[in-house]
Amino acid sequence: MNHGGAGSQKGKMPNSAEYLIWLVGTCLEAAVVVCSLRRKIFVRYFFVNLYVLVDFGVSLGRFYVLGHEGQSSATYRYFYFYSDALLVIALFFSIISLYAYVFEELEIKRHVRLGAIVLLAGTSLFSYAVVSQSSSRLSTRFALELSQSLYFVGLVLTYVLWGAILKLRETRALLVQLVLSLGIYFSASAAGYAVSNLQPHFESYVRYLMPVMGSLLPLSWAYAFWRVPDGARLAPARLAAVPR
Asked: Against a cut of 0.85, is the pTM above it?
C-alpha cells in the first residue's frame, strides 16, 4: 500500500527518490500476481491477489492524477483518500480470506464470511457516525475515518489470526508466510504512524519510510508465491518456536 500522503507532503511534488520507491513498489505488486499465476494459485488466493491488483491500479491512478492535476489539487486529494479507503477494504477482505483458509478444516467458512460482512458494515457505520457530527461528512474526512478504523480492525484481526495459527498448529508454509507478512507490515506501519504523530519533526523521514514499508508487503508475498511450494508444511516444533 502506498503511504505517501496527500496531507504529509504539503503540496510538494514528489522527488526522484519518491518516484523510484513508487516504481519499485508498483513492480513488486505486479510480481505478486505474475508469481501466483505462474504457480496456478491465483484463484485459491484470489482476495490476496485482488488486493494487490487494486493497489496496482490505485498506484497508476494516483500517478496519472498527480501528473495532470498536481498534488495540491482537490481532485488529487479526493482521489487519494477515497482510493486509500478502497485499498484498506480490499486488504480487509484478503485478511478474511486467510481466516477462511485457517479455519477451513473446522467447516466454519460461512460464519467467517458472515462475520466479515457484519464487521465491515459495523465499522463503516461507526465511521459515518463519527463524521456525521461535522458538515464535511461527504468530503474526504469520511474516507479518512473509514481507512483509519478499518486499518485498526485489520491490525487486530491479523494478530488474532496469528494466535489462531499458533493455537491450531497450522503448518501450511505458504499460508503462514502470508499471514506473518501481514503482521510485520501492520506492526511496522503502526510504528511509523506513531513516530509521525509523536514527533512531527520526523515527518520528512516518515515521508520515505512509509512507502518503503508499503513495498515490503508485496515483496514478501511475491517471494512466498515464487519460492514456497503450495503443499509445503512446517514442522510443528519450528512453528511453535516463532516469537509470539
From this structure: no
